[in-house]
Request: fold
Amino acid sequence: MVVVVSLLVLGALLLNHLARAEPRYAGFNSVRPTVPVVELGRNDRVCQSTLLPGDTAEIEYVVATLGRPGPPVAVSLSTPEGELIARGRLEGGYGDGRMAVPLDRPIRESRATVRACLRSTASVPLQLVGVPAPNGGIDFNGEPQPQLLTLAFRRPGAEATFEFLGTIAHRFGIVKTTIAGGWTLWAVVALFAFSSAIALRLVLRRDFGEERA
Amino acid sequence: MSATAVRPGHAARLGRRLAGGVRRSPRTTRRAVRRVPRAGWLCALVAVLNGLVWSVSLPPLQSFDETLHVYYAQYLAETSRTPRPIDRTVISDEEHTVVLGVKLFDVVGNADGRPPWTVIEDDQLTAALAAGPSRVSEGGSGGVGYYPPGYYALGAVAYKLTPGGSILDRMAAMRLVSALLAGIAVLATFLFLRELLPRQPWTWTAGALTVALQPLFGFMSGVVNPDMGVIAAAAVCFWLLARAFRRGLSAALAVAIGLAAAAGVLAKLAMVGLIPGVALGGLLLAARDGRWRPLLAGAGTFAGLMVLYALANLTYWNRPALPFGGGAAPDAGTATGTTGNWREALVYIWQDFLPRLPFMQDKFADFPLWDRWILGWTGRFGWGDYGFPEWVGVAVTATFVALLAAAVARAVGDRPALRGRWREALTYLAMAFGLLGLLAYTGYTYTRATGNGFEQGRYLLPLMPLFALVVAAGLRALGRVGPAAAALLVVACVGWSGWALLLTVERFYT
Reply:
């Protein structure tokens, strides 16, 4: 009885966790948000090449606003050949931390390389966070600079883990073995359930607790 | 411990009688193996399956120093040689391609870092590997130039047996070696408990399952790391010694103990910390039974294998005969002048596990026993960059202390029965303190040489059989509610383990 109740409690905790809706990411460029590397003034523009993951609805920068409300900004995403993929705009007034700029159209497919540009449209200074990168890759008002910006790509809206499981399963199969795929996560869940069932079966046997003479 | 303990007055005679009874030990041992209860095999299966689950759940190379361990196994598989303590290139171009392809060092320690999620990146890595980067480096140290090859030899076998030649497949196969070793460790823990608590079979299962489901143990079971070799060898040593204390030290048992101890040392030098305790156990057994030949056979086996290893180092692998290095990267404590002084070392060792005394210089900014050893042991994963909230450590520690208190209270009541087991208790304590002492001293030399912290909870995993013993003895001490408490504990461990996997999914895939 105790075991059944505790299993039910565990199950309820898991369901509660999986049902919690929150904003989700489509991808990160995995650049560490270490130090401010660029400061934008009015009409300054910084661009960086990046992989653009599918299902992106917002592009996110890590910023410092020096204690003042952040300035309005505009972003554009374009192919290396210059073809516009999407635009975005964010009103000012945000603070330090993560600044997510919504795009005017959803990105369906991943693209290996796009050029992501951010322009400040007010004179309030805005610092962008990233890392120094001697071989790196931004250009600031057309000038190459040895820095990289921290970027992240958000999916639309907020999703519960339940709704998001297919995406997690897809990611689970990437850069693993040659046979890994979207099925791998489900295989892992099944294996863990099986091993847990063996463990529970062992302690729920009728003779569990008997002693030898 | 068991009420069937050898009473002091009869210990020597009983020991001799038992030892005589196991002269036909090969057959007896085989029969004993066949007599392993089904529950023991199932506990081992749980450990293997959990290791498999972890091995697939973690992205490639996302565990402590896995880059170096994969390097060693690959180098051994490709060249039949070990890395050497020399300043040459370390990981192969092929592995370096994987390191870049999985964005390893952009992810490690970076909350904003994730491994590749897109098919584009998967294809890019596949294409880069298809270009045929070299599989052999110059065999430099990288911190593992002093490491023995035992564990890596198993990894090399898995590497060679993997069809297709994909490095990602080979790395996955090497991780499975650790899962199998986890199965051995859990089975040995089960058998260890069977020797110590022979009248309560349910405690064997409960203790072994808490090991199999312990998240850090599961995590280590799913990655390429020689710690798993030490963990398995240590568990086998604990079991065989318990068997010897109960049944007498036969020559076969002594040889088996020597083999297990040597296998542990050949897996990773951390096993050296357990050897004084194992040797002490052998001496106490021989003295108790009045039979020294088995001890000589066991010691000879161990020494013989060490000599062979030393010769292989000197002749074939061109390394120092018995190389002793510190933790992974760089070779702590091996350079001249990095060993410090004894007074400083003792202060460090004290503070590694105990609160600083007023006259001591402060060696740590934190309290290592809690912040590094206990919280690390209760669950810190990847390259140590994610884990449970601190209250989990508090809950686990409180449960452990409660079980320990119950076990001690019961033991105090069983004093007459336990009095004859002092040799055995002393042996296990010597093994535990030997390992802790070695870890603390290695931490001292490592920190002195590199300025980095050394202590990680995973280094305590060779003592898992003692953890299981506390759990099992504590549950037994609870009397009639013991089995229900055991079942509850196993459910909690399933939840603990599942939560660790959920954290892993959230760390790398969301």
Residues 77 and 116 of chain A are 5 Å apart (CA to CA). Chain A touches chain B through 59 residues (CB under 8 Å).
